[in-house]
Design the sequence.
């Protein structure tokens, strides 16, 4: 074999190794479904960090899907594309907060999703919006006049008239993390990822929970989505409900319970 052929053969071998290495863990015959976590608004994947670690220790492949927070249909399409291209085999989709609305719309575009887990999350029906559901029952701090809760920042990439919304930093700890350490609440407030205001007013599409089994974790101290509204959404979805004593950020307050519920959804 001459030098050119040796180089070509080596390149082919390297490409083959890279392809195998890049394949998701389920491609190697794991019996467990892949868990794909979808964070909510004013957050990022770190909000699921303790849950991710617990599930990984229990042998699950766990992926955190990027959630652009630009618009409900666009965010759902992004998550569905991630599931379809970054995983193989069965998938459990778990969404926190606004992430619940995203998985509600994404699962219908991702045929390997077998179950849904809603963690202090929205589970809208067709035509409903996040704004509508937030005010459906009394008790949400986000239902107050917008100028008292949010700071608006114009993003040139958004459509005309739309803005990015941030929860006011001095109110974030009280609303989202009242029972977490003060320093943690302040750090989360500083690190929050904004959501486009239009996403909160965009009607939801056909809900996947009408076709897929669902599990719900309801935080009794939630000041974002009142527990009564979470129970109402779970009830119409005929979902399995677990109640936890937690604020809106239950994945940080009660990670063991959240991981256990996701395992139930995974059927393990």
Sequence:
């Amino acid at each position: 074999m001459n030098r050119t052929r040796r180089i070509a053969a080596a390149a082919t071998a390297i490409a083959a190794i890279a392809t195998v290495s890049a394949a998701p863990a389920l491609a190697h015959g794991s019996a467990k479904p892949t868990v794909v976590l979808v964070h909510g608004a004013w957050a990022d994947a770190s909000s699921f960090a303790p849950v991710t670690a617990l599930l990984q220790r229990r042998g699950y492949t766990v992926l955190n899907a990027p959630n652009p927070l630009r618009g409900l249909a666009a965010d759902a399409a992004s998550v569905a594309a991630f599931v379809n291209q970054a995983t193989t085999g069965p998938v459990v989709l778990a969404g926190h907060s606004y992430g619940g609305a995203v998985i509600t719309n994404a699962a219908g575009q991702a045929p390997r999703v077998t179950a849904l887990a809603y963690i202090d999350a929205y589970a809208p029906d067709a035509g409903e919006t996040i704004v509508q559901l937030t005010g459906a029952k009394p008790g949400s701090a986000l239902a107050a006049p917008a100028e008292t809760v949010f700071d608006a920042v114009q993003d040139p990439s958004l459509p005309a008239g739309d803005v990015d919304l941030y929860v006011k930093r001095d109110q974030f700890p009280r609303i989202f993390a009242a029972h977490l350490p003060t320093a943690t609440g302040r750090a989360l407030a500083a690190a929050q990822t904004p959501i486009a205001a239009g996403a909160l007013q965009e009607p939801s599409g056909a809900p996947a929970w009408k076709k897929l089994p669902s599990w719900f974790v309801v935080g009794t101290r939630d000041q974002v989505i009142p527990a009564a509204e979470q129970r109402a959404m779970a009830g119409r979805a005929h979902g399995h409900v677990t109640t936890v004593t937690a604020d809106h950020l239950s994945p940080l307050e009660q990670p063991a319970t959240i991981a256990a519920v996701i395992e139930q959804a995974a059927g393990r």
